[in-house]
Design goal:
Blueprint: H1 2-25, E1 27-38, E2 44-54, E3 64-67, E4 72-79, E5 86-89, E6 92-95, E7 102-112, E8 120-125, E9 130-138, E10 142-145, E11 150-157, E12 160-170, E13 175-182, H2 205-212, H3 224-245, H4 253-283, H5 289-314
Parallel strand pairs: 1-9
Antiparallel strand pairs: 1-2, 2-7, 3-6, 4-7, 5-6, 8-13, 9-12, 10-13, 11-12
Helix pairs in contact: 4-5
Length: 315
Amino acid sequence: MRTLRISIIVALLMVLLFPAAASAQALTSDIHHLMLRLNSDGTLTVREQVVVTNSSENAVQEKFSIALPEGFTDLQLIEGIDQEKTKLEDGLLIVEQPIPPGQATYKLEYKLLPGAAPHFLINKKFTMPTKAFYVMTQKGTLEVISDKLKDAGPLTMGDQELQLYEGTGFTADTVVNVAVQPVTAGTSAESAGPVTKEAPKFHNPGHIRLWYQSPFSGINAHLFLAIVIALPILGLGYHFYRKRAGEAPKKSAAQAEEEAFRRLLIKEKTLKAKLVELEQNYADQKVDEEEYQAVREIMKKQLLAVRAQLKSFTD
């Protein structure tokens, strides 16, 4: 009898604990985007949208969080988030509400104040694996600089002409450093040349652009000198480590090309499935017109890019 009781208790613990562990791994963000708007008072309005996918069959009861940039103000919860089930803690908006199976959209808005120089810094940290991250601005108003985002060109949404920046494949805890500055004569988004506009004495915009396009943009610039001094020591240690461990065998060019082709095929299949799912959600009125058009345009751009890459393998 005692053995039976122990078995029952163990079985109950397995039922209670293992689904919770599975649900924590079931959350990903398919699309995470920021819409930036410069205000007449010099502040920056950031509208943030996160599309969270729960791949399990049941609602996830655990809390999740959205990281907010340093210095945010006037936070507003627009869609999908219950004000009474949230709290702010160490720069995180913690949401303690169930996440339904499938996709759920969460929208919020806040403002950022300019720093000592006429630019804004957004250090965006992802709290879950994120497949695609986009930053959108009204064309010709703001310049976005980040070593982890690329300029994807203009995007038309209704009567709005936007500039789109994109990055893909971010793991949880990845931080994307984004510098945003108003576009003026000499600092246009199309120009990578020197800044001709007279800049304040602290943080020249040209220096900001060069810094955030460098591979060291994730480092505090004021600590850069100390790190440069430490680099030779780290390099020497790495040399001895590699010498002892030995070089890992490299894949042949043919193997690498085959893997890249296979990944592109999987990505194309996934995007087509997502587009079909989006159309169905729109038909069932699960997404509004604005969200439908925005997500559809982004997915179509991704699909065209993937097909162009696939075509390069057959040419």
